[in-house]
User: Fold this.
Amino acid sequence: MGERERREADEAVCAYILALAEAVPGAVCIYSPLPDETDVSAAARELVRQGREVYFPVMREGEIKLVSVTRRTRFTAGAYGIKEPVGEEREPAETEIALCITPLTAFTRGGGRVGRGKGCYDRFFAVCPCIKAGVAYSCAYVKEVELDKFDVPMDVMITQKGVLRAEEIK
Assistant:
């Protein structure tokens, strides 16, 4: 995608994230994007501005910890060059998350997903039950991916074309 097309896609994705978050009461976990990921920063800022309970994942020794984010939260470069919030780190199992916005590299009709291959989100979802919303550009759709028994499928996929339950993706 060109820069303009990608910017428009990011804006559409953020609007869909905000609409989904409005329908799901409770805390939202959302990520800081890497340069090659769908940019959800505007949605994250708006959720914080609205006063929603928002958490960002931070990587610690291959595991996800959660940091609560407010308007006053400061960010710094963390693992893998990802912007991370500075604050108290919480265990996912001890944090109630209603909706988790997760970056995807590729996704399938059944909610199968490809991430960065480290299994961090799979371990996160095993201890933190929530609605799992994968985010990617629509061009990341693939007919199938090789999954193992530990891979956790997404409940919904968000692309610039909309929000769909996994089984609705055609």
User: Anything to note?
Assistant: The chain has three helices and twelve strands. The two ends are 21 Å apart (CA to CA).
